[in-house]
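Are you able to produce any protein sequence you like plus the matching backbone structure tokens because I've never seen that pairing?
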Amino acid sequence: MKTTAPIFVILGVINGALALMQGFLIPPEHQAEFSISAKEYFLYSFIMFALGIRMYQKSAQLEQEME
């Protein structure tokens, strides 16, 4: 869990940035061609980021309890 948490955080940040770029740089008439909207993409990115932060907190807590 300790190694996957940073991966989730990094992927969440990258996907969040890509979702913002999709929302601001691509005209709305062209966004209909994508499978998900920019809002959904940003929401999924935030969930991934929050899950990574929570996994990191939980692993740090478990490490602290073991000491």
